[in-house]
Design brief:
Chain lengths: 428, 324
């Protein structure tokens, strides 16, 4: 039987590997058990997985991304994408406790670039890079079927509304700010805010701080009316995916061949990511002149906004650096020396017990503040540049004859494909 | 609901989410944190049923030693070691005497012939006049002697650093050692997370050693074979809690044990099988932070003497019927 089915051997081998990893992961000594009713505080991160399982996770991610690309572009199956996203929700969300995810991996990558003492694991790096590579070639198939955060929101889209474009675009700028801030804080070793404010981790782990649970429930409630609110208003990884996806050559299309402009798909996208055809006739000489004028102004504004952003960032570095616990602690101990005697202040007591001197702490804080000076300037410049490019894009005229998904905003969920009669005719 | 209302609802929720995140982000600072989520509240375990309390504090003796380390009771005299002095305190009220000893005393034990004092890594033998008779060989850098016990001509020394009991003869020759290990699951070996490792020989000549990591008292033969044990792990009054309790023990005439715990300080009496008999001193008699377990001694009348390290005094707890 094995000769006929060699893959059975492979399955058996994989099962043995998995079992072995679990056995290794068991604690050597059980924790003492007291009948006291005392509840152990929950750890903020799940226990580390065996290395073999981490590589297996990368393989699963690769398989899901490949399958999602095929389902979105070749097979054109909304149903397939939906079931694949359910699998990802269960596997990457509930089974793997939502960690490590590609979104949070931004911080690992940022820290590894700016801190030579931090080595990023190859699996974390692959979780960061693979979805971006797929977005570069096939669009945001990661959002469609591999992201557990997207999947849980997608399942609760009940009565999505389309909000005015200017509000949508204003809200859509929040992820850029969030990305810049999270990279700055990770690069300076201050905080991993993406993980701290991940709203769905608490749901995946069926446990978590009250704030996390509150955010999770609120986002899901909001998602009933404003589809995928986290993806559209907060997700910093979505910014990177959007940039990559804009260059994708083989992106999902609404119609498999020629669009008949029946408008059936127009309201099908709960994310307002369908761009309607723009007739050439719209481009009158008067409109063109007006747009050209605005385009020149916005082009000129880009360096101005970049420099202004950099200047504001640089000016705010003292305030920003207080996010780092060492800087805050040093300032606190300078301004309130009496707090050294406060036995209730765990941070100060922990520092005093560490054996480091106060002078060392102040020195360390000064070094960190120096990093913030450069980092805040870069962050401000980046935000200014992104704002300038966003403004410029508002006046760039792109001729469009078909109904097309917006490559940057489209999550490749495939809802629109089901509305296209062209495809239905082909299938018939 | 109309689209306009839903749009407003969406915006309001987004503002709430942003507000909550910003408030939490700015609020999570060393001087703005709430309660320590890892704090272990033990206040509820400080209350003890009055019916369990068998003793009453009747008097105390201030020592003036500044740093006291151990205490032993022999022939109605309390022997208390300080850093470099030994106080002999007669219980009949007569004047206390003080002898100069080597610096760094950590423990002592007294019998009719000698006074043995442990100095961290070695033991010294003194006469009852306070004369240094012999310094025994140093047991090595890792040694931390925490307590001594005497059985005839055998002197047992508890070495917390190496998690072992070292056996000497009266002349200071090391005749053996044991680590409490055995084939059975019970003989795990001594688990000693901190320098709290006590032992005692009772009136029947049995050697009992505390295994603090297991919250157990273990009975050993002269050559270190385990003969029996009992353990009691609980937050409630009938057991021991924390990493290293009972930190100190002594035995009474009938073979029962007086135990003394650190952290949540409690002095209790257990029978030979480990059943709680009574409470000598409940936790509310000991106040302050990072409290050490008082060293305890017991006389033939059931009076318990507790060396309170923080207050630098010996506190006397008499059985209630005797006190009244």
């Amino acid at each position: 039987m094995i000769k006929k089915n060699p893959h059975i051997l492979l399955i058996l081998f994989t099962l043995i590997l998995l079992t072995g990893s679990y056995l290794q992961a068991q604690q050597r000594f059980p924790k003492p058990e007291f009948d006291s009713g005392y509840l152990q505080p929950n750890p903020t991160q799940p226990e580390p997985r065996a290395m073999a399982l981490e590589y297996f996770d990368v393989l699963v991610l690769l398989a899901v991304l490949s399958l999602a690309s095929w389902l979105a572009i070749k097979k054109r199956s909304r149903r397939g994408l939906l079931w694949l996203s359910v699998f990802s929700l269960i596997y990457f969300g509930f089974y793997r406790d939502g960690c490590i995810c590609s979104i949070g991996a931004i911080q690992n990558v940022a820290l590894s670039i700016f801190d030579s003492g931090y080595a990023i694991s190859i699996t974390a790096l692959l979780f960061f890079v693979l979805p971006l590579l797929f977005a570069l070639f096939f669009g945001r198939v990661f959002c469609a079927s591999a992201c557990p955060l997207g999947a849980i929101q997608d399942l609760l889209v009940i009565n999505p509304i389309s909000i005015p474009s200017w509000i949508r675009k204003t809200l859509g700028f929040i992820p850029v700010l969030y990305l810049a801030l999270s990279v700055l804080l990770a690069a300076t070793g201050s905080d991993f805010i993406i993980c701290r404010y991940d709203p769905f981790i608490g749901i995946f782990r069926m446990d978590g701080p009250a704030l996390m649970i509150f955010l999770g429930i609120t986002f899901l409630f909001l998602g009933m009316f404003y589809a995928r609110p986290y993806c559209r208003i907060f997700c910093p990884y979505g910014v990177l995916l959007s940039w990559m996806s804009k260059f994708s050559r083989r992106h999902l299309t609404i119609t498999p061949s020629e669009c008949i402009k029946c408008k059936l798909c127009e309201g099908s996208c709960p994310f307002d990511a369908i761009e309607i055809p723009v007739e050439q006739s719209y481009r009158t000489p008067e409109v063109s002149r007006k747009n050209l004028k605005r385009f020149i102004i916005y082009i000129a504004l880009i360096p101005v906004l970049t420099v202004a952003g950099g200047w504001i960032g640089s000016r705010s570095h003292i305030f920003m650096s207080r996010v780092h616990p060492d800087v805050y602690l040093a300032e606190l101990m300078i301004s309130n020396p009496e707090l050294r005697e406060d036995e209730e202040n765990l941070d100060i007591q922990a520092f005093l017990e560490s054996g480091d001197t106060f002078e060392q702490l102040v020195e360390e804080a000064a070094v960190i503040r120096g990093k913030f000076r450069k980092g805040s300037m870069a962050m401000g410049g980046f935000v200014g540049l992104a704002l300038g490019i966003t403004l410029m894009n508002q006046v760039v005229f792109r001729r469009r004859e078909d109904y097309e998904p917006h490559k940057g905003d489209c999550f490749s969920c495939g809802r629109c494909m089901d509305y296209c009669p062209v495809e239905k005719n082909v299938n018939l | 609901m109309k689209k306009r209302s839903l749009t407003i609802l969406v915006l309001v929720i987004v503002v709430i989410i942003l507000g909550v995140i910003i408030v939490d982000f700015l609020g999570n600072r060393p001087d703005k944190r709430g309660e320590n989520p890892y704090a272990l509240e033990v206040d509820q375990y400080k209350e003890v049923d009055d019916e369990l309390i068998s003793h009453k504090e009747t008097r105390n003796f201030s020592l003036g030693l500044m740093i006291s380390t151990d205490m032993s009771l022999h022939e109605k005299k309390l022997y208390i070691s300080g850093n470099s002095s030994l106080v002999v305190l007669p219980l009949d009220g007569s004047e206390a005497t003080m002898h100069e000893i080597l610096p760094g005393a950590t423990c002592l034990e007294v019998d009719s012939q000698h006074i043995f004092i442990g100095f961290g890594t070695y033991v010294a033998k003194y006469s009852h006049d306070g004369e240094l008779l012999q310094e025994w060989p140093d047991l090595g850098e890792r040694t931390v002697l925490t307590n001594l016990a005497i059985k005839g001509d055998i002197i047992y020394a508890a070495d917390a650093g190496n998690r072992r009991i070292v056996i000497f003869n009266r002349e200071g020759e090391q005749t053996g050692q044991f680590e409490g290990k055995a084939e059975s699951e019970a003989g795990h070996g001594f688990i000693v997370p901190s320098a709290n490792f006590d032992l005692a020989v009772n009136s029947f000549g049995e050697l009992w050693v505390v295994n603090p990591g297991k919250h157990a008292l273990e009975d050993y033969s002269d050559d270190g074979r385990m003969r029996g044990f009992w353990e009691s792990r609980s937050f409630d009054i009938d057991g021991f809690l924390g990493c290293c309790n009972p930190a100190r023990i002594t035995t009474m005439e009938d073979g029962s044990f007086v135990t003394s715990e650190k952290g949540l300080v409690r002095i209790k009496i257990y029978d030979q099988s480990g059943k709680l008999l009574s409470v000598v001193a409940p936790p509310d008699l000991f106040t302050g932070e990072d409290l050490k377990a008082p060293e305890v001694c017991a006389d033939e009348d059931g009076v318990i003497y507790a060396l309170d390290f923080k207050r630098d005094m010996v506190r006397v707890f008499e059985p209630i019927e005797l006190a009244e």
